[in-house]
Amino acid sequence: MSEDPTPVSDSPFRSEPSARDEAPQFVLPLVVRIEKAEPPARTDALETAARAVLTILADERSAGEGEWAGAMRDWQDARIRKVVRRARGAEWRRAEALPGITVTGKSAEVRVFPPVPLDGWPKDLARLQVSGTDLDDPEPPVDADPAAPVLWLNPDLGMSAGKAMAQAGHAAQLAWWELSDEERAAWHDAGLPLAARTADPARWSELTGMGLPLVRDAGFTEIAPGSCTVVADHPALRREPHGAGRAASTRSE
Length: 253
Prior knowledge:
Elements: E1 26-33, H1 42-58, H2 69-77, E2 81-87, H3 89-96, E3 101-104, E4 109-112, E5 116-117, H4 123-126, E6 150-153, H5 161-178, H6 181-189, E7 195-198, H7 201-207, E8 214-216, E9 228-233, E10 250-251
Parallel strand pairs: 1-2, 6-7, 8-10
Antiparallel strand pairs: 1-4, 1-5, 3-4, 6-9, 8-9
Helix pairs in contact: 1-5
């Protein structure tokens, strides 16, 4: 498992302007497989994308002298960005040939790649479409297990599946960063279980006041700047509303 060497006080998830904005900008590419005949379910795609982000954070190649460690450090030294593109058929096979990790859910496949410069995507990824990625759930998702981590989406925001996948990834990473080494190890050893659900409006208001990791969007695509998109409700991080403890992490992208 990789370790996050960055202190919370210098977290790239802070929404305030900082020296990180002056650093070279990198992006974490994620590619979701969407075949015409059998597209994945939306909720499963969100959950699989979030687990993909956690998987590369925990991978040994991302730590120390690992082959991805330099790229991961450059990415985390700047504003942390994620972009979700879609592929099928030969496009997917070409994406799978590039260094990365494929994470499989119930119906979704998401491949995550080491970070690349914002304007330096590999050609086989750069040609993939990024806009208009949307998916449906054939059946309403079952209630989330309250004993497991849940990524709660803002019920008042309409986001494409691709946008929501990136936001779920941000929230999962925020939770990861706030956990202790022991808590991360336990989550990883359990297989990184998590759920992604849209919160009830009343529940959303409560969640945003619980001191849990909260994603705020910078407004580059789809939604207004400063919009709160996802709360990461990990059992180890739950606090009383407006209670004591570390301030909630926030992130703009």
